[in-house]
TrEMBL record:
Record-given protein name: Insertion element IS150 protein InsJ-like helix-turn-helix domain-containing protein
Gene3D superfamilies: Winged helix-like DNA-binding domain superfamily/Winged helix DNA-binding domain (1.10.10.10)
Residues in coiled coil: 79-106
The organism's taxonomic lineage, starting at the top: Bacteria, Pseudomonadati, Bacteroidota, Flavobacteriia, Flavobacteriales
InterPro entries listed in its UniProt record: Homeodomain-like_sf, InsJ-like_HTH, WH-like_DNA-bd_sf
Domain Insertion element IS150 protein InsJ-like helix-turn-helix: 21-61
Source organism, top-level taxon: Bacteria
Keywords: Coiled coil
């Protein structure tokens, strides 16, 4: 008895290839290391059209204008980007101003609290150093 072994052909799809693999193949082709047909043979890819799709999707080649230069941004795109940056900077500035104003208010409130405590308890909380006293304090700390 003979048993026949059928080898079923399993069609591979693009989903079998990882994104990193696709990007590697596109990089090799765009750098000139391989041609599309060479990449098909080297990596066992079924058709050149698959690689062409990858090049269109992941490559830097401008297929509409057939140039290898990356597409430059139009003036409208540049304006939109700059306007977005301006809005971001304005938000950051407003936040910084808000925080500065809040810090100033805290300082005023703390000063008022210290003044009230000094009057209420008749003690001196703030220390007023005279220049001579500051000098002797610095000298004492250096000697230690």
């Amino acid at each position: 008895m003979q048993t026949s072994v059928k080898s079923e052909y399993v069609k591979r799809t693009q989903k079998d290839y990882s994104l990193s693999f696709k990007l590697q193949v596109v990089e090799e082709i765009e750098s000139g290391q391989l041609g599309r047909l060479d990449a098909c043979h080297k990596y066992g890819i079924q058709a050149r059209s698959t690689i062409t799709q990858w090049l269109r999707k992941y490559g830097t080649f401008d297929w509409d204008n057939l140039s290898r230069e990356p597409m430059s941004k139009t003036p409208e795109q540049k304006i939109l980007e700059l306007e977005a940056k301006v809005r971001l900077l304005e938000k950051q500035k407003a936040r910084a101003e808000h925080l500065a104003e809040r810090a100033d208010k805290k300082v005023i409130i703390f000063d008022m609290l210290v003044d009230m405590a000094e009057k209420e308890y008749d003690i001196q909380i703030r220390k007023n150093y005279t220049p001579e006293l500051l000098k002797t304090t610095k000298d004492n700390t250096k000697k230690r």
